[in-house]
Amino acid sequence: MTIVLLIVIGFTATFIGTLAGSGGLIGMPSLLLIGIPIHSVIASAKFSNMFSSFSSFYVLLKQRELTLKDVLTLIPFALTGGLTGGMLANSFSEKTMNIMAVILLCMAFTISFFKKPKQKGGDWYIPKKAYPALFGISVYDGMFGPGQATLLMYTFLNNGASYLKALAFTRFQTFISCGAAFLSYLYAGNFEWDVAIYYAIGSIAGAQLAVRAARKISANHLKKILHAVTIALILQLIYRLFL
User: Fold this and answer.
1) Exposed / middle / buried, residue 111 (Cβ in 10 Å: 0-12, 13-18, 19+)
2) Pairwise CA distance, residues 5 & 72, whole Å
């Protein structure tokens, strides 16, 4: 039953997260609620996100939404940011991480209400002014992560990218930063293979379905569901802190 639950959580979180961001608002709290320690939760999420993000990015790359050359400049920012965040997270106790989880979840939830700006037409490249924000988001992703994809999506959209191009850039940066963060968690011994493998299976399936449906499903519909689920999960996570 636990195996099925891990696959379902991974699928649901990544399906929503790929299309609209903030899938971690479902995935991480759900793993916490079934009794997995927070550092192992984050490590499992980073592990699964490596594969699911790259698989969805690869589909968009094949669909010519962008070229590999377009995303190469993201690598140093995402890599160093993810490593930095991962090292910072491993220096905190489980209780501290749970408290930070509630705070960061609430912040990410609030950001998810922001309206999507108008998009610019034609070719698009990442402006230099966006790189400090992209680095900071990668640090956050390595340290905890829920809402990270939403932050990236809005960063790219606010700088004029189309929805599908923003989605592709977000998936690639998530792949790099999660890979870097995962290495730090693995080195610190905060990784449970029996959790991560099944969560990753669900995540890959969710990412593949989502990226193929991206042209057909409205993100606004998914976000309405996400908001309702998020409120319930945040309340349950707060309750967990006082057990």
Assistant:
1) middle
2) 36
The CA distance from 120 to 107, in Å, is 28
User: What's the predicted TM-score (pTM) here?
Assistant: 0.74
Residue with tokens 């409205």: 218
Taking only the tens place, the pLDDT of each residue in 18-48 is: 776 667 767 877 888 888 887 788 888 888 8
Task: Render 80-119 in DSSP notation, one character per residue.
Answer: HHHHHHHHHHTTS-HHHHHHHHHHHHHHHHHHTTSPPPPP
Question: Which candidate, 179, 235, 173, places its Cα nearest to that of 50?
Answer: 179
Q: How many helices (H) and strands (E) does the chain have?
A: 11, 0
* Percent of the residues in the chain that have a pLDDT greater than 90, as a whole number: 5
How far apart, in whole angstroms, are the C-alpha atoms of residue 15 and residue 36?
22
Single-letter amino acid code for the residue at 226: L
Q: How far is residue 51's CA from residue 34's CA, in Å, rounded to a whole number?
A: 23
Check: CB of residue 213 under 8 Å from CB of residue 95.
Answer: no
- Please write the tens of the pLDDT for every residue from 160-213: 787 778 888 988 998 888 888 888 778 777 778 888 888 889 889 988 888 887
The encoded tokens of residue 102 equal 């509630």
Give the largest Cα separation in the chain, rounded: 54
Instruction: Please state which of the ranges 56-70, 141-155, 214-228 shows the lowest mean pLDDT.
Output: 214-228
Name which of 94, 78, 79 is nearest 188 in CA terms: 94
